Amino acid sequence: MSVLAVSQSALPSSEALAAMLDRLPEAAPVVVLIHGYRYAPGVPGHDPHDLILSPDVRDPRRRIISWPRHLRLLGDDTLAVAFGWNARGGIWGAYRRAGVAGRDLAEVIARIKAVAPDRPIHVLAHSLGARVALATLPHCPRGSVQRVILIAGAAFRAEAAAVMASDTGARPEVLHVRGPENTFFEALLRAAFPWAGPSLGAGLPGVAGWVDLALDRPGVLPSLARLGHRIAPHRARICHWSGYTRPGIFGLYRAVLSGRVPMAALARAGVPPAAPRPIRPRRRAGQTVR
């Protein structure tokens, strides 16, 4: 079994995890997948384990695609932990529950490290799942999580900065992927929490271990293409799911999680090209330039 469906209300035991991990190659990673707002395990039509976290979903809606399948986590050489939590209801309650879910997910990661201390663990999260991921990291053993990908993170800069500056917790490398089609949803988040300050949509510049990849920034898509990852431009002006529905994007995520594309390369890809220097006319001897 390559996808382990985990619900916050029913965490797997250390024994169950050990049995699954024993069947994997020694260096095979564990990839934790965290959904965002509006999903909840056991709710018909909204259960993430039947939809984006399922290995077998086939849905005509373009945004309902299988993360494990697109990340190629269905073989015998890796394990995907599909973490489901209650993200239904009002945004205020869901945001609060995301923090609680993070601490519960940290317990799952601690159990994995207890039985397989050398097993690499990575995280991919979307939307409000980014807050779950950020709330997880301070409660994890140091070095237990290697890489984290946050897609259109519905969280705030202050919380992320505090997590990255902490001397305790996992302290992984973090890639935050954003695009202009999510601007409307970022505005809604800031309107719901006006006291929280800038959201992650504003980026987290100057923080060690954190890379913001703004797909709309001039030169970024060509830079990624030179790294071997051709990603389609966004099509819709407003879309919260573009970060995992753009053609080509999962190839980049696979390369990041495997380490084939290092974070340093993505940091360079996210730097806008320098503005061309103005061409000044050459001044000849005795000539006055006006």
TrEMBL record:
Compositional bias of kind Basic residues: 279-290
Signal peptide, first to last residue: none
Protein's name in the database: Serine aminopeptidase S33 domain-containing protein
Chain ranges of the Serine aminopeptidase S33 domain: 103-155
Disordered: annotated segments: 271-290
Gene3D superfamilies cross-referenced by the UniProt entry: alpha/beta hydrolase (3.40.50.1820)
InterPro entries for this protein: AB_hydrolase_fold (IPR029058), Hydrolase_4 (IPR022742)
Coiled-coil positions: none
